[in-house]
């Protein structure tokens, strides 16, 4: 992996991993023989191993090491085929180049997605099918990439937050210090007006944040609505008191990336 794009690659891999975890934690149909690798030689070994025994996180049966390996494989294969300007995208690059800003503004155009997908290896699509991340004809590589880039682009182009001085060295839920961190508004911005109107919190509390990895950030927003987060989980202590959060933190903490 090129050193100049290592931070962007880390963010991209984190987005891939979050997508994989979301899919693996949902019920899925039993893969057919082709998806299990019986006839398809273009599927990655990681996908073949995983496709036959993905279970829900509730049963604690999903192997975090294999999820990490598969996510790294998919991220590396796709990222290496992305355009250079997408691999090096940043807040500063968009501010300095209006053409670049227009090109990568969301939502991406269909032609942009198609152009990206043309250059991605066919073995990637085979692995995504085997893993159930795309399910033709309901979804395809373009569908997958559109959602993935819609998560990746904001993660690498977000302006420096005013809370940067509060940034932690590790995720405040799972304690992993080798993954990119995002800031989570403990009182979601979407309900700030309602919070003030109903007197749930003082205005000075509205910008309280926690620094979380993308996987934990996604988990928190899945566990409760914005309104419920604002009313009942407006501090990190309240979030971490939940049994499901503690079980999640224990599970996700086992995921480690291999050096690239």
From TrEMBL:
<feature type="region of interest" description="Disordered">
    <location>
        <begin position="23"/>
        <end position="45"/>
    </location>
</feature>
<protein>
    <recommendedName>
        <fullName>HNH domain-containing protein</fullName>
    </recommendedName>
</protein>
